[in-house]
Amino acid sequence: MPEVTRRTFLQATGTAPVVAGAAPSSRPNILIVMFDQWRFDCLGAHGNAQVKTPNLDRFSARAANFKNAFVQAPVCVPSRTSYLTGRYPHSHKNRVNYTPYTQPEPEMQMLLQRSGYSTGSVGKLHFHPPTAEHARQTGFGKVLLDDGIDRTDPYSDYVQWRKRHDPNASVPYHQTVRNPAPGKNPFSAVIGKEYTPTAWTGMETRRMLREAAAADPFFLFSSFFKPHSPYTVPEPYASRYDGVEIPLPRRVDLDYIHRLPPPVQRMILRNTPQYNIGRDRLQWMYRSYYAAVTMLDDEFGAILDELERSGKADNTLVFVVTDHGDQMLEHGLFGKNVFFEASVHVPMMVCWPGHTRPGSYSEMVESVDVLPTILEMCGLATPECVQGRSFAQLIAGDRSRYSPREMVFAENVMPEVITNGDRGTFFVPGKGVDGIRHPDAKMVRTARWKLNYYPGHGGELYDLESDPGEWRNLYHDAEHGRMVNDLKGRILDWMITADENDQIARRWLI
Length: 510
What we know:
This protein has 15 helices and twelve strands. By secondary structure, the chain is α/β, with parallel strands linked by helices.
């Protein structure tokens, strides 16, 4: 077989039809690379001239690059479960981080394993319980875990590896330098880059790729914790953006925050509010976030190199995705959990050389669409429980066989409530916490309009055409009442029809 180089992988063009019922020997291998909390605008290929992402940019040039991809929940576990099940959060019931998935429908890894794929996972899964044994029960044959937070360190393969290899293993992996010199990054990591979770995830992904090369077909899920906060980043990346002035979000004050619906106010003001953080520190947070993305870009490039060395690059379907974005203090909030574009509008790139047509795609797609797309491209049947819509024909170049979405949806318990009382968040049914109910909030977004609806607390309506920053809430404007009611109706219709397949009896039971 001729050698496949990164250049041939990235420059592959042309399309081929998606073949249903393909034999296992002709099915593509599947590699999903997921970054955590990655902003849509933090990519050179998306017009950001400051962030350095050469490998992702080159991949984007030869991939189907979706400019309007949206997650179904702006928080890790619900979003990841939607990717893996093809079902909306209100259907799969995984609504809050570190809650168990208890529904009978199998996830992506189990469906592929049952169809003859060898399966593996490296890095963050965010499953509960957070153990390798549990992950294997869901369909991952090989599992190497690291969820990136202290509470799950006892189950982390990365933590155990670091204890064996890092001479400074006693130093916490998120620890930053003390007393940095003036003009230097206060988020610079103490540990060396080769011992960071990012480097470990990349290294183990490449090792698992080498092992998987002997098994066709394979499915590998490579999940990096970064660029998720905390903003710790090692050298030489920590100083990569020294002196770079990154545009910062608009300042907000309490007057603005108090005009938002109560659940959004609670999100911004809970724990220790940071809406008024110092601009110098915020600048370093942005520099460190960009640095983390650049480090991920290097790891991604090395993963592509390994894929090419394996000889499998020309028959591997590669997805690059994220579970949600990061507000980065837009609208006064770090993190996510809200329906602003920075949280729900995400990068998504797909490439299978010779089978996907490269280019920029403006069609709106949802994260629930990933599973049915993969199954169709592998020639496998899509279970009736899947609620997403395959875009396989679209990226294969046959737009005539694809019906574009007119709108996308997201939902979230806002803010999420953990009722063990460790943060004083005691929940009273019907009253919420401190008199503010935490509704199962819903979002519907069209190409122009976005409605965020909070039962009992009103909502937000934004005209994204004239107000892409989502600053002018039109929800209570009389002239937009018809639009509010129409979009509420769209949410109602979606909620009624999303579970339609679950409601149909396929045969009489007596």
